[in-house]
Design goal:
The chain contains 3 helices and 7 strands; from the N terminus they run ααβββββαββ. Strands 1, 2, 3, 4, 5, 6 and 7 form a 7-stranded mixed beta sheet that branches. The protein is α+β, with helices and mostly antiparallel strands and 151 residues long. The termini are far apart. 40% of the residues lie in helices and 28% in strands. The longest helix is centred in the first third of the chain and has 27 residues.
């Protein structure tokens, strides 16, 4: 019996020390903070590109991984083989409908491709002149219509 009185506190102390070391290591590990900073830089670059393409000089509301709103839709950021993919939704000032987007960026945060669902004529014209942009239109019946630029 005396043996258990000594072993129990020693094991509890050792487990406590191990947990404290693990918690300290997790709290001071710089990798999660560096990953978060990289992802924030990618999303901020994606916001700028999206705004320049979709609504230059106009107000644009964006739901993305830095400003999520589950009521609007999900937003993600993924590391890809050659860069990043960012998804979310946007809405122009005064518009009722939110438009989904998927943007691919290279490792230098330059636009590779942008896929959106939008009925705005300026967006359709922009897609016709830029092979990196693909626009699917909303239809009256709710079905998706794909517009591909002529090449």
């Amino acid at each position: 019996m005396d043996h258990h009185r000594i072993i129990r506190p020693a094991v509890a102390f050792a487990v406590g020390i191990l947990l404290a070391l693990y918690a300290y290591h997790r709290a001071t590990d710089p990798e999660p903070a560096m990953k978060r900073a990289r992802e924030e830089a990618v999303v901020l670059a994606a916001r700028e590109i999206l705004h320049e393409i979709v609504a230059p000089g106009e107000a644009l509301h964006i739901v993305d991984p830095l400003a999520p709103d589950r009521a609007i839709g999900k937003a993600y950021i993924y590391p890809a083989e050659t860069g990043w993919e960012v998804s979310g939704h946007y809405r122009r000032q005064g518009a009722e409908r939110w438009s989904p987007f998927l943007m691919a960026l290279d490792s230098g945060l330059e636009l590779v491709s942008l896929q959106v669902r939008d009925n705005d004529q300026r967006m359709l014209a922009r897609a016709a002149g830029d092979p990196r942009i693909s626009v699917s239109r909303f239809s009256v019946s709710g079905e998706q219509q794909q517009d591909q630029p002529d090449h």
